[in-house]
């Protein structure tokens, strides 16, 4: 299926590694030019080179911090200068503070501020600064990476759930306000996705991973491509009548009927 995004311009935040990098690759494989944004300039350069080499599209690395308004403004100026506008915005972020704890044990104000900054404010700062580049083009896609915890809160995940829920609300407001511009806004809510590739090791021990596999009817962890494919679909022409929604990518872990 041709997703209809060949030649479009896609910005993927938090894309020097992990899911963000994989999402940028997936969009580039469909012919989109990609803008990469994260703090590690050297890693971003390598990801951009890999994408240009493998997919024959343009990949623009812009190094900076999603929490710095100056860096995000420089990102906006770079996208404007290189491409003149933006079609697809994927709001991926860094992770919640590690390790996660039981809710009543989350007593440190600094951890709550860190979680808010990493998972909510960072994405809002990018959205409010970059979305003006998407207006007036008659077409656009916003996809935010949240967590399945917004549908079914997972133990020890309060620091994530609280701010992912906030992001879900923000995206719903965007969907309502941007629809008339032909722009959709949706969330992809993953859980139990394999991160064993991660530099510094997976988020869970082998024993924890085995226990987590049993949380789903499928009895396994999710593959990165099962998240990236969902993001690419929501960015596609064919997903044009889906907006304000959250698509779970959690192997059926959430037990709700709808
Ligand atoms: N795996 C799952 O099952 C699952 C489930 C639910 C949600 N998620 C969420 O999915 C997201 C991606 O996960 P992941 O495993 O790919 O994480 P990861 O491997 O730790 O990668 C995080 C990325 O975020 C970038 N980053 C962090 N802080 C940043 C900042 N302030 N400004 C710019 N870039 C920043 C990092 O690059 P630099 O260090 O170069 O800046 C890196 O590229 C996370 O938010 C995670 O919580 C994952």
From TrEMBL:
Entry-linked InterPro entries: NAD(P)-bd_dom_sf, SDR, SDR_fam
Name under which the protein is recorded: SDR family oxidoreductase
Family named by the database record: Belongs to the short-chain dehydrogenases/reductases (SDR) family.
